[in-house]
Design brief:
InterPro entries: Pigment-catalase-like. By secondary structure, the protein is an all-alpha fold. The protein has eleven helices and two strands. The structure holds 2-acetamido-2-deoxy-beta-D-glucopyranose (4 copies).
Length: 317
Amino acid sequence: MYKTCLLLVLVIGVISRIDATPVNSHRYPSCSGNISATDVDLVQLAMNVEFTEAEFFLKASTGKGLDAFNATLAKGGPAPVGARKANLDPITKRIIEEFGYQEIGHLRAIADMTGGIRRPLLNLTRENFAMFMDRAVGRRSNPRFDPYANTRNYLLASYYIPYVGLTGYVGAIPYLVYFNFKRLVAGLLGVESGQDGVIRTLLYERQDETVEEYGGVTVAELTNEISILRNKLGMCGIKDEGLCVPPWLGAENRTTSNILAADAYSLSYDRTPQEILRVMYGTGDEHRPGGFWPCGANGRIARMFLDKRYYGNCGAC
Ligand SMILES: *[C@@H]1O[C@H](CO)[C@@H](O)[C@H](O)[C@H]1NC(C)=O
Ligand SMILES: *[C@@H]1O[C@H](CO)[C@@H](O)[C@H](O)[C@H]1NC(C)=O
Ligand SMILES: *[C@@H]1O[C@H](CO)[C@@H](O)[C@H](O)[C@H]1NC(C)=O
Ligand SMILES: *[C@@H]1O[C@H](CO)[C@@H](O)[C@H](O)[C@H]1NC(C)=O
């Protein structure tokens, strides 16, 4: 295991250089979270991530999506596309099922306090995950990467989502004004980071397993590549780290294991609303929807950034 971590350290050194290439070429990206937004706007932006997690976790573990449990939370948003029951081992299934129910609670908490938002169109198809993974690794999977095929693939796909929610909550809290919103987001952050920690621990145990869809790339390497992709899409430096890091990114510069991603003080990284949108759209541009949210995210913040030119085929949603 230690050997894998060391090898990866060399690889990361090379890749992080390529990292600086901007994806978003036509605008200088903002890395300031100080945007004109109310507490309601900020927690409603988070609902987009919570809807995505709810569907992904519930469908994968129970075979049923959010609407089967609470049909009113989506507020008439379009049916999510592509999620399905995953072929999970019994323990992972139980864990993911619990996470799914937790997301329903999170959505209810935000909806009860703010009235909620319409669920955006969610693209949870195998093709969409394969597209993100292919981009992370830099080549096409063969056979195609299927997040629902087995526990390992599902955990790798899960690596993509709660962590984005976590960084968004860390980024939002300093800008919240009211006590009840701070309390809400602190509570959401606690559980979200717990989910991320569990997913990363389960992956850490499998760090040396190879992913045949990518010709024997290990789980640890793949997590690094996903993190590098997210850093690239977010365009605001290192906010994301894989399971094995060079010592200068490890806790107190003393370790290469990296179950929890954090900064030099071992504090969680934060992301702004724009970074969240860039990463989840997969376009590196908060104005240009795609990826998990092909018609754009909902709520005032996301809609404020959305460029109507890219709205194209999404009249229906
Ligand atoms: C955010 O922007 C407002 C208006 O420009 C300014 O008054 C405030 O001090 C800024 N807050 C932070 C934390 O930068
Ligand atoms: C669905 O969530 C809403 C918002 O919290 C709540 O008012 C409603 O009772 C829930 N419905 C069910 C069936 O749990
Ligand atoms: C979902 O993503 C895949 C891969 O990018 C794409 O082929 C498909 O058209 C998308 N589906 C929707 C409904 O946006
Ligand atoms: C770890 O190394 C980095 C870069 O070399 C340095 O900036 C940081 O202060 C070091 N942290 C500790 C706790 O020594």
